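=== Per-residue structure ===
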Amino acid sequence: MIHPTPAIVTQGAVRPLPRWALLLLCLAYVVPGFVMRDPWKNADVTAFGYMLELAHGTTAWLSPSLAGMPPETEGLLPYWLGALALQIAPSWLSQEMAARLPFIALLAATLVATWYGVYYLAKSPGAQPVAFAFGGEALPADYARAMADGGLLALLACLGLAQLSHEITSYLTQLACTALLFFAASALPYRTALPTAAAALGLIGLVLSGAPTMAALLGAGSALLVLRTADHEPRSSRTWALALLGLTVVAALLAWKLNLWRWRIVGSAEGAKDWQSLLRLLTWFAWPAWPLALWTLWRWRHQITSRAMHRHLLLPLWFTVVTLGATITTQPADRALLLGLPALAALAAFALPTLRRAIASLIDWFTLLFFSASAITIWVIWLSLQTGVPSKPAANVARLAPAFVPHFSAIAFTLALIATAAWCALVWWRASRDRAVIWKSLVLPASGATLGWLLLMTLWLPLLDYGRSYRPQINSLMAVLGPQPGCIITHGLSRAQVAALQYHGGLSLQPTDGRRLPAASDCQWLVADSEAQPPGGDIASPPEWSRVTQLPRPTDKNDQLLVLRRAATLR
């Protein structure tokens, strides 16, 4: 039995979102979070530390190390990108900003690939709306463009995208490569050269970013769907399906050659105790895309189970299922779930032509209340820090971030004010009249998520930097060490702490081997993590070493540096 498509869309409902508005929204989302901030703990500053080591030529490109410690993940691509950017960046550009330039491009590529992926999926015959008896239904190209706008808005609205997509880690490279592969599988065989290049970059990039299993599963499943969901001449589909499968095999062989295959499945006992937190993660991380995706699965259920396989549903569903499986079985779960957001946004987009007016109104009102309340909260706390009125928020901040001194930035204030005014204008536009365009239900969620992120990265940026950067702690350490401390022996420090000491303090570090001091060391200072087990031998034997102080991070009393000095230098 052939079931009709549930999409009923008129030509008037597929008016495109103005390009200037869409580009401005993407710009307001991408740039904040990459500029004017320190590297944050833990993954962000750790990756930056490896990039600096590679750029300075102090470690090997195929086996980088940081104070003798290899990376925690096997994906070297982000370190290479950041190091190359550091080497070719002009001298007037700060090092942290230079390292972020490739990752700004990766996030932009993710948004572009998602838009075009949804566009080509919406052009497939099975995705087209019902044809009216007297005409007036949406034209295929206009319908596909409006659906692509909705898919991109759904991606921007996902709450879990903001922070992880602005860190210079392998997870952003994995996200961008997954989006490229999603676009390639969506566009083949409508287009050939560009999707093939995107598939090659996506598969090899996933392998080099430490996700060879994801590359193999997504690549093989995409090749099968290109073959079985042919909308064009079958021979051409077979050709490009084999090409995609061949690229997947090449990526798998590359992972084998570089010894990147690893078993990362968490044990059942370990995973069982995390189900509650995992459920909370699944609830908020992909909001509001996942409720719309579930609605898509329900309204398009006959097409999903049809023998005539529809790529516009099965392809994003496959990407979503694979990433959900990785989320459940691997750690960290949020990083794995991040890779499924482009496909989940595509599924959410196909809910738009089938939404009932009551559901669309519920989304609008919930979004309006949630993001307006969030923006008001951010503004009230900022005003309290600047003026002392109201007094309670400032007192809470003083308790959580002692010694933090707020300062006023005219640029940040102006940007935040413009963004808030734009949000108010958008709410008025959305509430003043009943818009027929199908992407209308995702304008407020995407704009609200962008507003919240921009306000955090402008008004709250000094406070967030103080709380999430190692700079305050390293500044306190440098005040203890003095202007010329010489070399520093370190013990039990994490990769993030080592990277922060080298970047913020410019210190020359000599790590211990875990038991004794380096042989014949002339270093007069020892910096250790307060929770690390003390090694035997020289460090533990008085009177050679004398404790000087213990320095906590201002916002985390459990993260403390123990500072010792050779007793001979104290005489």
In short: The mean pLDDT is 89. Residues 258 and 271 are 29 Å apart (CA to CA). Residues 357-387 form the longest helix (31 residues). The chain is about 60% helix and 5% strand.
